[in-house]
C-alpha cells in the first residue's frame, strides 16, 4: 500500500476492538519514530508517555470526557506533553544543542513572553502528533487524536511536574462495526483546488 493509500484508509477511530492488541515491536517502532520527530532548532521540548497499564488507563478514561470508551478499548494511549519548566529547557539545550541553535533560542525565542515561548513549544509537539498519526496509518494501526481530555488531571495521574499534557492519542485496531470508518462514512475533505495552490 502506498502512503497515499494509507492516508486514504486512515480515519479518526470512534470504536475499538478491545480483543485486538498491537504487537510489541510496532509499539517500540512508534516510540523510535516519535524520538526522530523534527523540531525547530532540534529543540525537542516534549515527552511522549505510552500508557497501557489498566489501572492508569482507567483513571485517565475518567478525565477524558466523551473519549472514555476509546481509552478503555484501545491498546495504548500516547500522551503528548510539552516542557513546562523554562529553566529545565534552557539547561537541556545548553547541554545538547550546538552553539548556533542555542544562540537562536536566546536571540529570537527567549525575549518573548512565557506564554509565547510555550506556544512555540506547543507547535513542536503538534509536529510530533502529525508524525505519529502518519506512522500509524503506514503501519496499519488505527488512531484517535484527542484534545477532549482534562490536561491538569492527566498530569496529576501521570505525575508530570515539569511537563504539561497537550493532547492524547488512542491507538489500537478498529471495531469492524465502527460507523466512522471510510467504508461506512466516506472522508469529507475540501476540494484539492481549494487547498492546494501551484505557482
From TrEMBL:
Cofactor: FMN
Keyword set, alphabetical order: Flavoprotein, FMN, NADP, Oxidoreductase
Domain Nitroreductase, residue spans: 9-173
SUPFAM superfamilies reported for this sequence: FMN-dependent nitroreductase-like
PANTHER family, per the entry: NAD(P)H NITROREDUCTASE YDGI-RELATED, NITROREDUCTASE
Family that this chain belongs to: Belongs to the nitroreductase family.
Protein name: NAD(P)H-dependent oxidoreductase
Organism encoding this protein: Dokdonia ponticola
